[in-house]
Protein backbone atom coordinates (compact mmCIF):
# COMPACT_ATOMS: atom_id res chain seq x y z
CA UNK A 1 0.00 0.00 0.00
CA UNK A 2 2.83 2.40 0.85
CA UNK A 3 4.46 1.86 -2.54
CA UNK A 4 1.22 2.65 -4.34
CA UNK A 5 0.73 5.82 -2.28
CA UNK A 6 4.31 6.94 -2.96
CA UNK A 7 3.89 6.29 -6.69
CA UNK A 8 0.58 8.20 -6.80
CA UNK A 9 2.13 11.12 -4.95
CA UNK A 10 5.12 11.15 -7.30
CA UNK A 11 2.91 11.04 -10.39
CA UNK A 12 0.70 13.84 -9.05
CA UNK A 13 3.73 15.96 -8.07
CA UNK A 14 5.41 15.55 -11.45
CA UNK A 15 2.15 16.13 -13.35
CA UNK A 16 1.78 19.47 -11.52
CA UNK A 17 5.39 20.29 -12.34
CA UNK A 18 4.59 19.79 -16.05
CA UNK A 19 1.33 21.78 -15.90
CA UNK A 20 2.56 24.73 -13.83
CA UNK A 21 6.31 24.91 -14.57
CA UNK A 22 6.61 23.09 -17.91
CA UNK A 23 9.26 20.83 -16.32
CA UNK A 24 9.22 17.31 -17.69
CA UNK A 25 10.83 14.30 -16.02
CA UNK A 26 11.67 10.95 -17.51
CA UNK A 27 9.45 8.07 -16.35
CA UNK A 28 12.38 6.35 -14.63
CA UNK A 29 13.08 9.57 -12.68
CA UNK A 30 9.47 9.68 -11.48
CA UNK A 31 9.69 6.02 -10.48
CA UNK A 32 13.02 6.48 -8.69
CA UNK A 33 11.67 9.44 -6.69
CA UNK A 34 8.58 7.40 -5.75
CA UNK A 35 10.76 4.48 -4.69
CA UNK A 36 13.04 6.70 -2.57
CA UNK A 37 10.00 8.33 -0.92
CA UNK A 38 8.63 4.89 -0.08
CA UNK A 39 11.98 3.74 1.34
CA UNK A 40 12.13 6.86 3.55
CA UNK A 41 8.52 6.36 4.69
CA UNK A 42 9.16 2.70 5.44
CA UNK A 43 12.34 3.46 7.41
CA UNK A 44 10.55 6.01 9.61
CA UNK A 45 7.55 3.76 10.26
CA UNK A 46 9.73 0.69 10.83
CA UNK A 47 11.65 2.63 13.48
CA UNK A 48 8.37 3.87 14.95
CA UNK A 49 6.89 0.38 15.32
CA UNK A 50 10.04 -1.66 15.97
CA UNK A 51 9.25 -3.88 18.97
CA UNK A 52 12.95 -4.26 19.80
CA UNK A 53 13.46 -0.51 19.83
CA UNK A 54 14.23 0.81 23.31
CA UNK A 55 13.76 4.57 23.58
CA UNK A 56 16.43 6.71 25.17
CA UNK A 57 15.75 7.69 28.74
CA UNK A 58 15.44 11.36 29.57
CA UNK A 59 18.25 12.50 31.83
CA UNK A 60 16.49 15.60 33.05
CA UNK A 61 13.07 17.12 33.46
CA UNK A 62 14.42 20.65 33.63
CA UNK A 63 15.51 22.98 30.87
CA UNK A 64 19.27 23.05 30.47
CA UNK A 65 20.88 26.13 28.99
CA UNK A 66 23.02 25.97 25.84
CA UNK A 67 26.71 26.82 25.68
CA UNK A 68 27.75 30.47 25.62
CA UNK A 69 27.26 31.88 22.12
CA UNK A 70 24.58 29.34 21.26
CA UNK A 71 20.78 29.48 21.22
CA UNK A 72 18.59 26.58 22.28
CA UNK A 73 15.40 25.75 20.42
CA UNK A 74 12.82 23.45 21.99
CA UNK A 75 10.26 21.97 19.59
CA UNK A 76 7.08 20.08 20.36
CA UNK A 77 3.87 18.91 18.73
CA UNK A 78 0.38 18.23 20.09
CA UNK A 79 -2.48 16.33 18.50
CA UNK A 80 -6.26 16.45 18.78
CA UNK A 81 -7.26 13.29 16.94
CA UNK A 82 -11.04 13.79 17.00
CA UNK A 83 -10.71 17.27 15.49
CA UNK A 84 -7.95 16.19 13.07
CA UNK A 85 -5.73 19.05 14.26
CA UNK A 86 -1.97 19.07 14.74
CA UNK A 87 -0.42 21.99 16.62
CA UNK A 88 3.33 22.50 16.63
CA UNK A 89 5.55 25.07 18.30
CA UNK A 90 9.12 26.14 18.87
CA UNK A 91 10.83 28.38 21.42
CA UNK A 92 14.32 29.85 21.01
CA UNK A 93 16.18 30.95 24.17
CA UNK A 94 19.66 32.32 24.85
CA UNK A 95 22.13 30.87 27.41
CA UNK A 96 20.56 32.95 30.19
CA UNK A 97 17.10 31.63 29.34
CA UNK A 98 15.79 34.84 27.76
CA UNK A 99 13.21 34.44 25.01
CA UNK A 100 14.75 35.06 21.56
CA UNK A 101 11.96 33.92 19.22
CA UNK A 102 9.10 31.49 18.98
CA UNK A 103 6.15 30.44 16.91
CA UNK A 104 3.31 27.97 16.71
CA UNK A 105 1.38 26.51 13.82
CA UNK A 106 -1.95 24.77 13.64
CA UNK A 107 -2.67 22.37 10.80
CA UNK A 108 -6.01 20.80 10.05
CA UNK A 109 -4.52 17.42 9.33
CA UNK A 110 -3.67 14.42 11.42
CA UNK A 111 0.01 13.60 11.58
CA UNK A 112 1.67 10.84 13.54
CA UNK A 113 3.75 11.88 16.53
CA UNK A 114 7.03 11.42 14.68
CA UNK A 115 5.69 13.25 11.60
CA UNK A 116 4.53 16.22 13.71
CA UNK A 117 7.78 16.44 15.64
CA UNK A 118 9.83 16.12 12.43
CA UNK A 119 7.72 18.77 10.67
CA UNK A 120 8.22 21.15 13.58
CA UNK A 121 11.97 20.56 13.66
CA UNK A 122 12.15 21.40 9.95
CA UNK A 123 10.13 24.60 10.50
CA UNK A 124 12.37 25.57 13.44
CA UNK A 125 15.48 25.04 11.30
CA UNK A 126 14.00 27.27 8.59
CA UNK A 127 13.14 29.94 11.18
CA UNK A 128 16.67 29.82 12.65
CA UNK A 129 18.11 30.21 9.15
CA UNK A 130 15.72 33.09 8.37
CA UNK A 131 16.81 34.89 11.56
CA UNK A 132 20.50 34.27 10.88
CA UNK A 133 20.93 32.05 13.95
CA UNK A 134 23.92 29.87 13.09
CA UNK A 135 24.65 28.20 16.43
CA UNK A 136 21.41 26.52 17.46
CA UNK A 137 20.98 23.48 19.67
CA UNK A 138 17.64 21.81 18.88
CA UNK A 139 15.83 19.75 21.49
CA UNK A 140 12.75 17.54 21.17
CA UNK A 141 11.00 15.19 23.57
CA UNK A 142 10.49 12.72 20.71
CA UNK A 143 12.89 9.85 21.35
CA UNK A 144 12.13 8.35 17.93
CA UNK A 145 13.08 11.59 16.18
CA UNK A 146 16.24 12.23 18.19
CA UNK A 147 17.45 8.65 17.74
CA UNK A 148 16.67 8.72 14.02
CA UNK A 149 18.80 11.84 13.59
TrEMBL record:
Coiled coil: none annotated. It holds the Pfam family RVT_3. GO terms for molecular function: nucleic acid binding; RNA-DNA hybrid ribonuclease activity. InterPro entries: RNase_H-like_dom_plant (IPR044730), RNase_H-like_EbsB-rel (IPR052929), RNaseH_domain (IPR002156), RNaseH_sf (IPR036397). It comes from the Eukaryota. Residues 74-149 form the RNase H type-1 domain. This is RNase H type-1 domain-containing protein. It comes from Trifolium subterraneum.
Amino acid sequence: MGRVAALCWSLWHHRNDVVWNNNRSLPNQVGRIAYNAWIDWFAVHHLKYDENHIPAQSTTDRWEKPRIGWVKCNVDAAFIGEARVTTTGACFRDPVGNFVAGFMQRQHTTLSTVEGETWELLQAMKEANRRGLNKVQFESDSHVLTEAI
